[in-house]
Amino acid sequence: MYIAMISPECAPVAKVGGLADVVFGLSRELEIRGNEVHIILPKYDCMRYDHIWGLNITLADLWVPWYGGSIHCTVWFGFVHGRKCYFIEPHSQDNFFNRGHLYGFSDDTTRFSFFSKAAMEFLLQDHRRPDIIHCHDWQTGLVPVLLYEIYQHIGMHNQRVCYTIHNFKHQGATGEYILRATGLARPEHFLHYDRLRDNFNHSALNLMKGGIVYSNFITTVSQQHAHEARYTDQGYGLGHTLEIHQGKFGGVLNGVDYDVWNPEIDPLIPVRYSAENLDAKYGNKEALRDRLWLQKGFKPIIAYIGRLDSQKGVHLIRHAIFHALHSGAQFVLLGSSPEEAISREFSHLKHHLNDSPDCHLELGFNEELSHLIYAGADMIVVPSLFEPCGLTQMIALKYGTVPIVRAVGGLVDTVFDRDHSWKPLEERNGYVFYEASLPALEAAMHRAIGLWYSYPDEFRKLLVQGMRCDYSWSRPGQDYLNIYNHIRPK
Q1: Is the pLDDT of residue 16 over 90?
Q2: Which homologous superfamily does the CATH classification assign to the domain defined by 278-467?
Q3: Which residues face 176 on adjacent strands?
Q4: Residue 96: left (phi > 0), alpha (psi -120 to 50), or beta?
Q5: Distance CA 462, CA 451 (A)
Q6: CATH topology match: 2-255+474-487 vs 278-467
Q7: Regarding beta strands 330-335 and 301-305, do their DSSP bridges make them parallel or antiparallel, or are they unpaired?
Q8: Most buried residue among 252, 406, 425, 436 by CB atoms closer than 10 A?
Q9: Which CATH superfamily is domain 2-255+474-487 in?
């Protein structure tokens, strides 16, 4: 099967969040299973070009219709750690992808509508016809609309679309000018409730809604989040649209790339280890303390790794730090915030805790340090207000770091409470709390820290059970192949 993966991100060359890891990991798994996968990306000026091999021009003259004229583009090809990637570079005064960042501009909907149009034009001109077009998030929501309203009539009638939504919060609300720009026109047709009209702003188009309506199948990144998107406010207004299209909507849990996140082979940690060689893990704990100037002693290390934003439960993260310190534990944080107020809050907190021998806040992101923290910590907190999938807890399990999570999204599908889960005892792997409240978080942390101190053999057993969980791409890879085969023309 030939799959064209159209995405705004792919790790490690263009990465803002978990979407990038999913595109790379899923593409790799599909290729291992004998499929051909081409990843189509914008050619950003800020990409990690040191991770692209053999970058060369594959199509010098791609003319993309735009408004009443067309924009000249160059298409580049290169290998990203074995993945076949095409990068679309527009030559336009709009300077779509030479901005120093991937997102965050007032014309983002225009930029990625152009990218969707350019990707479809490239597939049309390329003459190789993918069996499946797999696109991601609001940035590519226009792809299935363009396919079924324009491109199926000019040579792409057998292509089918799988559309994956990683985050319902950002939906690509925009004006009808996008219809004129992309050649769709007919605002009276598309500004209809059954098509692209936003469910609440009736004068706006919603690109994510367009992806849902026009795709052959829609997935989100865990089964629990699929339920939440339909029946709670986590669908951010798209619950009714998902209800209408429920027959083609489901959840597929993301996987973790165990070639990257695996303590048995990880080149970024000083001591490698496995469930059968667990004592070696504690060499990483000492290395983490040395690197961050934490005092040595008989204490557990609790960690937080990830963005510092409202989705992640900032007030709970802050409270977890102080509760850990008051409970005889050490705390390590690695993260940064896109929100200025939160950045200031944690900068102040870092200054306040600067002299503590049991706490270190690293405000920023450092890939090498994240590996060491996963390997060196005893527990990790993931107190998210919503979490479509979450990779942090799955990576932590592989490294024998016990997760303490809130019961939302993919956290529910991957972490099973040691004391209260419906799972058999031997399949439980962490601690879960339900309310987004300080007492609920404290209760879960108290149980975890108490087990570490009072029943070390039981704690060790719990983390070994976590290390033996399989959250690789193997199962989700097969799930996606099943979806592809379901929607392909028979």
Answers
A1: no
A2: Glycogen Phosphorylase B; (3.40.50.2000)
A3: none
A4: alpha
A5: 10
A6: yes
A7: parallel
A8: 406
A9: Glycogen Phosphorylase B; (3.40.50.2000)
SS3 string of 83-150?
EEEEEEEEECCCCCCCCCCCCCCCCHHHHHHHHHHHHHHHHHHHCCCCCEEEEECHHHCHHHHHHHHC
> And the tokens for 112?
């990625």
**How many residues belong to the chain?**
490
Angstrom distance (rounded) from CA 390 to CA 386: 10
Question: 375, 397 in Cβ contact below 8 A?
Answer: no
Domain boundaries, the chain: 2-255+474-487, 278-467
Pairing status of strand 301-305 against strand 249-251 = unpaired
CA distance 252 to 231: 17
Tell me the per-residue pLDDT of 292-324, one tens digit each, with 9 for 90 and over. 999 999 999 999 999 998 889 999 999 999 999
Cβ atoms of 190 and 179 closer than 8 Å: yes
What is d(CA 60, CA 284) in angstroms, rounded to the nearest whole number?
50
pTM of the predicted protein model: 0.94
The better pLDDT of the pair 173, 490 is held by 173
Report, in angstroms and rounded to the nearest whole number, the Rg of the chain calculated over CA atoms.
23
pLDDT tens per residue, range 59-89 = 999 999 999 899 999 999 999 999 999 999 9
402-406 and 330-335 strand pairing: unpaired
- The tens digit of pLDDT for each residue in 93-118 reads 999 999 999 999 999 999 999 999 99
Q: CB count, 10 Å around CB of 304?
A: 25
pLDDT of residue 127: 83
What confidence tens digit (pLDDT) does each residue in 334-393 have? Answer: 999 988 999 999 999 999 999 999 999 999 988 899 999 999 999 999 999 999 999 999
Region 176-180: what's the mean pLDDT?
Answer: 97
Shortest CA distance to 40 belongs to which of 84, 99, 81? 84
Helix (H) / strand (E) element for 362: namely strand 359-363
Helix (H, G, I), strand (E, B) or coil at 443: helix
Contact 107, 98 (CB under 8 A): no
The DSSP secondary structure of 4-63, one letter per residue, reads EEE-S-BTTTB-SSHHHHHHHHHHHHHHHTT-EEEEEEE--TTS-GGG-EEEEEEEEEEE
